[in-house]
Amino acid sequence: MVDRKNVSGISDHKKRKGALVTPFNAAFGDTLKLSPWAKERMPEYLWLGLILLHYGRTTGIERAGNILSEISKKFDSLSQPRMSKILNLTNDEQELLYEIICKHVEKEVLAPLTVLYPNRLYPIFNKYFFIPHLLVEERINTISEAVKLFSPHQSDEATDLRFLALSLMIFSGKLHVMPGMELAISALNEYPYTDHENEIMRMYRPTIRSMEGGMTFDENNIDFSSKFWRDFGMMTPCNPIRIEFPQNTTNYKEFVDDCRKVIEYVLYSNKDKSLAEDKFDVIIGSVNYALKIFDEINENSLGSSILGRHGIRTIIEVYILLKYLLKREAEHPKIWEEYKLYGVSKYKLILLKARESNSIDMTSHFSLPIAEALVNEIRWEEFIDVDLNYFDKQGIRDKSIEVGEKELYDLFYDYDSNYAHGLWGAIRESSMLHCNSADHQFHIVPDIYDNQNLPDTKSDSNKIMILLYTLLASLYDVPVWFKEKYLVKK
C-alpha cells in the first residue's frame, strides 16, 4: 500500500486547463526530468555491483574503492565509472583501465558481462574478462542475481552501489560539498565503514542516494541502458503472475425471481398507468432493464469479468437518471416523454447512417427493420429531432451531484467507465499480467489465456439494485414480504 503521508490529496492538486496537476508538476513543470535508477543508471554501474556481489559489502567496497582511486589518478577525463564511457575509451585506455581492475579483482568477477558485451563488438573487454569454460547460463544467472539485488533504488545494496558511483568523483576531487552540509560530509566519509544496522545509516543512506541522483542527472546514456535491458531481457524468460481474487459464490437467483414478481405486481396493480403514462413506462422499463443486466451478471458468472463492470456502470446510470427525472418532473411535467424521445433520437441517428451505409447485412447485431419500427413507435420520425447533447444538457456527473449521488459516481461509475471506454487503467488491470522478473524491469505481458480475474461486482450490483427497488417502492405499492425481506433494515 502507498504511504498516504507521502502522496498528495485531491485538494493538493492544482486545476489547470482541464487537468489536476500534482504539486511537484505544478512547481517544476517542464524543468522536472525523471531519471529512474534501475532503468537508466544501474546498468551503467553493474560492473561495480558484480564486485559487491562477489566479495560482499566490506571487501567489495574496499576493492572497488581501490580500483576507482587508481582510475581517478590515471583518467582525468573519466568523471563517472559508467560502463558506456569505459567501453568508448580508446583501445589503449581500455587496456590500462582493465589492467587496474584485474589488479584488484579476479577476472571471473566481471566475466558474466561478456554475454552482453560480445567479442565482435568489444574485443578489448573480452580479452581481459572472457572465460571460455564459463557457461552462458552461469553468466546470465549471475547478472540476473545482480540485477535483482541492485534494482530497488532504496535498498541497502543499491545504496552501496550508488555510493561507489559517487566515489570516482570523490577521489578525483570533482565532488564538492557546500559549507554547512555537515551531514553530507559525514556520510561521504563514514558510509563505507558503517554497518547498515547502525542507526546513523538511516540518515546516511538517503543522503547518498540524493547526491548520486543529483550529481549524475544530466549525463545518462539512454541508448546504452535501453540496449542493456533489451539484450538481457531477450536472454531470460518472463515470469508472469496474477492476483487471485475470491469469487462471490452467492447466487442471487432467488433475489432476481423476487424482483421479477415485484415488477409483475406493480405492472398489474397499475395497468391504467401502463396504458397511458410515459412516467410509468420509463420507471418500470428502466428497473426491468437493470434487473436483466443484473441477472445476466449472476447467471453467466460475469461478476469477476470485464462485462460485469460494464453492467454495474449501466445499473448505476439507470438509478441516477431515474432519481434525476423524478426530481425534475415537478418543474418539467413533460420530462418523461422528452426522455423517451431523446433515447429514440439516438436510435434515429444510427438509423439514418445505416440507411446510407452498405455495411449492414443480415448478420449484423444492428437490425435495421427493428430500429426503424422503434424510432417510429412514438411518432413519425420526420417529427423527431436528433439531440446531439446529453439529455437535459447535463452529463451524468452533474446529474449525480444534483440527486445527491456524487459518491456513487466517484467510487463506482467513474471507475467502471474506464472499462466501458477501454482506457488503459482498465486494460492494465484486466488484460495485462505483471512479470515478476527484475531482468525485465517487472514489465507487463498480455493475459492471453484469461488467468487474471477481477474483484467481483455482484455484491455492489446487488446493492444498487436494492437502491433501485427502494426507489420503486417509494413510488408504487410493492408486496410487504419484499420490503421486509430486502428493503427494511433489520
Could you list some keywords that capture this structure?
490 residues; mainly alpha; 2 domains; 3-stranded antiparallel sheet; two-stranded antiparallel ribbon; 5 strands; 3% strand; elongated
Please describe what this structure looks like.
The structure is a single chain. The chain is mainly alpha-helical and 490 residues long. It has 2 domains: 37-236, no CATH class; 253-487, no CATH class. The protein is 61% helix and 3% strand. It has 23 helices and 5 strands. Strands 3-4-5 form a 3-stranded antiparallel β-sheet. A two-stranded antiparallel sheet has the order 1-2. A hairpin with an 8-residue loop joins strand 4 and strand 5. Helix 2 packs across helix 3 (57-74) and helix 16 crosses helix 19. The longest helix is centred in the middle third of the chain and has 23 residues, at 306-328. The mean pLDDT is 90.
What are the SSEs and their pairings?
Layout: E1 14-16, E2 19-21, H1 23-28, H2 37-55, H3 57-74, H4 83-87, H5 91-104, H6 107-110, H7 123-129, H8 136-150, H9 156-171, H10 182-190, H11 201-215, H12 222-235, E3 240-241, H13 253-269, H14 271-276, H15 278-299, H16 306-328, H17 335-355, H18 368-378, H19 396-402, H20 406-420, H21 424-431, E4 432-435, E5 444-446, H22 458-475, H23 480-487
Antiparallel strand pairs: 1-2, 3-4, 4-5
Helix pairs in contact: 2-3, 2-8, 2-9, 2-12, 3-5, 3-9, 9-11, 10-11, 13-15, 15-16, 15-22, 16-19, 16-20, 16-22, 17-18, 19-20, 20-21
